[in-house]
Amino acid sequence: MKEYLKERRDLVDLVIEECLNELKYPKVIAEGMKYSVLNGGKRLRPILLLMTLDLLGVQEKKGVPMSVAIEMIHSYSLVHDDLPALDNDDYRRGKFSTHKKFGEAEAILIGDALLTHAFNLITREDIEPSKIVELIKLTSSYAGVNGMIGGQMVDIESEGKEIDLPTLQYIHTHKTGKLLMLPVECACIIAGAGDERREVLKRYAELIGLAFQIKDDILDIEGTFEEIGKPVGSDRELLKSTYPSIFGMEKTKEILDEKVEEAKRLMFDAFGEEAKWHMKLADYIGNRRK
Amino acid sequence: MKEYLKERRDLVDLVIEECLNELKYPKVIAEGMKYSVLNGGKRLRPILLLMTLDLLGVQEKKGVPMSVAIEMIHSYSLVHDDLPALDNDDYRRGKFSTHKKFGEAEAILIGDALLTHAFNLITREDIEPSKIVELIKLTSSYAGVNGMIGGQMVDIESEGKEIDLPTLQYIHTHKTGKLLMLPVECACIIAGAGDERREVLKRYAELIGLAFQIKDDILDIEGTFEEIGKPVGSDRELLKSTYPSIFGMEKTKEILDEKVEEAKRLMFDAFGEEAKWHMKLADYIGNRRK
C-alpha cells in the first residue's frame, strides 16, 4: 500500500510542480503557492481521484489536472485556516505555516491565488466541455459556503463552546468530508459512472472523511510533534469540541473502527476485490500515525 | 446616462440578491456575502458586460450570471484588501468594511466564499458548455496570480517605496485593469465576436481601467469623505506611489483626459454611433465624483 500511495503521490507532485513552475511573477506569490502545496502532503484527495478512475476503468492521464486542482483548494484552505485571525498555527507538517514564512498579507493572497488557479486547471481537462462544466459546478459547490467554507465557519463559531453531536457532524462532513467526496464524484463525472456507483463511492468517501477527522482528533491528543508536525493538544487549547471530548477516548476508537469497517464493506459489496485499494486506503486512514 | 446606468444596476442588484438569497447557512457567511456585495457599488463591471453584449447584438438575459460572478470577484477582492493585514481600511463606501462588521476570520471566509461562488454562477450561463469553459478559463486567469492578485501583491510590495512608472502601470493594468477587461471579453466570448472587435474592446477596457485608477488617485486627494466613502488621503498615509505623486496634479489630469479621449475614439472608429453608451461611460469615469 505504501508503495502504491508513493507512486501516485510522486506523479501528483510532479504535475503540481509543472503547473506551478509556469507562474513566475510576483515572485512571492509564485513561490508561496509552491511552498504551500509542495509541503510533503499525503495527496490523499488526488490519489482518491486517480484510484477511483482506475476502479471505473478510465485511463489515469485523465483526471490529473482535476486532482491537482483539488489539492490546490485543500492547500489554500490550510493556508487561510492557519492565519492568526483563524487557527493561528505557526507550523504545518513540521514547517513554518505560509504566513509565518511569507507574511500575513502575502498568505491571504497566496491562498486566494491557489483557489483561483484551481479553477483554471480544471478547464484544462481533456474531456468533453459539458463534463468540465459539471466538475466546476460540483467543485465550487463542495468548496464553498454550502461545503468546506461552511464547515470551517461553524468550526470557528464553536470554539470555546460545548457543541452537540449534530453540530460536530456538520463540521466534519463539511470541513473535511466534502473535499473527500469531491474527488470520487469527479472521477464518476469523468468516467460517466451511473448514479448507483456514484452513491456508493460518495458514501465511502463520507465515511473515510469522518474516520480521517476522528483520527485527527485522536492524534491531536496521542500523537507527537514529530508525527503530526504541529504542537500536540492544540484542539484542547482552543477548547474545541472533538470526538474524544464528547465520547471519551475508548468509545472514540470504537467509532473510528466502525466507520472504517463500514467503508470497506460498502466497497466490497459493490465492487468486490476490484476495490482493494479503496479498502486498503480506509485501513490506512484508520491506522495512520500522522 | 445616469438613467441608463441605474436601470442596469437595478437589474444586476436584483439578480445578485436572488443568487445570494439561496444561501442560508452558516448565517454569518450568507449575510456577510450579501453585505459585501450589496453595498451600493456602481456595478461598473456587470454594466460593461451587459452594455457590450448589447453592442454585439446579443439579448441581455445572456451574460447575467457571468456579470454577477465578476461583481462577486470584485467584491471579494475588496473584502480581502480591506483586511488589517492588507490596506487596513475600516470603511468602504461610507459603511463599515466587512471585517469591521463581521470580524476578521469571518471576512477572510466571506471573501473566499464569494470567490468560490462566482465560479458556480458562471456554470449557470445558458450557453454552449465550450463557451462556459472559455469564460472560466479567462476569469481564473484575469483574477489570479497573473492578473488581479498579482497587481494587488505588487501594490502592497510598493508601499513606502518610490516606484517607477512601469511598476505603477503594472499595478494599474493588473489590479484594476484585468477585471475591467474581463467583462468586455466575456461578452465577446458569449457573442462569438471576432478577434478584431475583441481587441478594440479589450483596449477600450484597458484605457477606461487606467482612467478609473487615475481618477481614484485624484479623488483620494481632492474628494471628501462623503463623496468617496472612506477617509481622504489614505494613499499618502500608506506612502503609495500614485499618478499625482509621480506627475503632479495638473499633468495627471491631462493624462486622465487623454485616456478617456483615446478610449472614446477607438470605440467610435470601430462601431460608430452604436458605441454611444461605451463613449458615455468613458466620460462618466473621467468625471465621476466618487
From TrEMBL, chains A, B:
What are the names of the required cofactors? Mg(2+)
Instruction: Tell me which domain of life the UniProt entry assigns to the organism this sequence originates from.
Output: Bacteria
Report if keyword Magnesium is assigned. yes
Gene3D superfamilies per the UniProt record, alphabetical:
Farnesyl Diphosphate Synthase (1.10.600.10)
Q: Where are the transmembrane segments?
A: none
Which keywords describe this protein according to UniProt?
Answer: Isoprene biosynthesis, Magnesium, Metal-binding, Transferase
Has keyword Iron-sulfur? no
The family annotation for this protein states: Belongs to the FPP/GGPP synthase family.
Protein name per its UniProtKB record? Polyprenyl synthetase family protein
Natural source organism: Psychrilyobacter piezotolerans
| Species lineage | Bacteria, Fusobacteriati, Fusobacteriota, Fusobacteriia, Fusobacteriales
